[in-house]
Each structure stands twice: as C-alpha cells, then as structure tokens.
Design brief:
Blueprint lengths: L2 H14 L18 H5 L10 H31 L7 H22 L2
Helix pairs in contact: 3-4
Length: 111
C-alpha cells in the first residue's frame, strides 16, 4: 500500500471513528445540516400564531376551491356546447382545464 493510499485510509477512518482530532479531522462531514434529523421535531413546536394559521388555511381553501370550480365550469361549458370537436383550440383549452383541475384537486387534498 502506498503512502497516499494510507493517508486516504487514515482520513476515512478518522471520519468514521468520530474524528476525535488530528491532522485530517474535518467536523463538517460529521454534522447534518438538517436539524429535524438531529434533534427531532423540537424546532417545529410553535409554527406561528393560531390566527395566522387560520388565515393561511382559509386563503388556501378559497384558492383551491376556486381552481376546482372554475375548471369544472370551463370543462362543462366546452362539453355541453359540443365545441370541443369543432376546433383544435377548444380541445386544447379543455385539456388545459382538465390538467389544472387535477392539479387543483391534488393541492386541495395534498397537505
């Protein structure tokens, strides 16, 4: 084994053994930058005031509901007037409304 290989092996051994100290000790390899992995969910106990959470929830619900209802209305109007088959643009708009409807439903029930 060459000297460069033994130095690399010493570096990896120091990292794996807790890096007590020495020439090749780099503490940045040992600490995760995600605090939820190191300390559990202690940092997330207080995530804002209750009124702030209520306001955000209400706004989120209104936007998601408007997205679902608006896209259902567009799809209903295009389908009921039978204009989907009359032009490529109407077919395209129907497919956009369908994609947005599915996305809005995922956002509505996701988190």
């Amino acid at each position: 084994m060459s000297s460069s290989d033994s130095k690399r092996l010493d570096v990896f051994n120091s990292i794996l053994n807790g890096c007590i100290g020495g020439l090749y000790c780099n503490n940045s390899h040992l600490f995760s930058h995600n605090t939820s992995l190191n300390f559990g969910l202690e940092g997330f106990d207080d995530d804002g005031s209750p009124w702030g959470r209520i306001v955000i929830s209400v706004v989120y619900f209104i936007v998601a509901t408007a997205g679902v209802l608006g896209n259902l209305l567009v799809m209903f109007l295009l389908y009921s007037t039978h204009t989907i088959t009359t032009g490529i643009i109407n077919f395209f708009v129907f497919n956009l409304a369908l994609a947005q409807l599915l996305f809005s439903m995922v956002c509505l029930f996701g988190p």
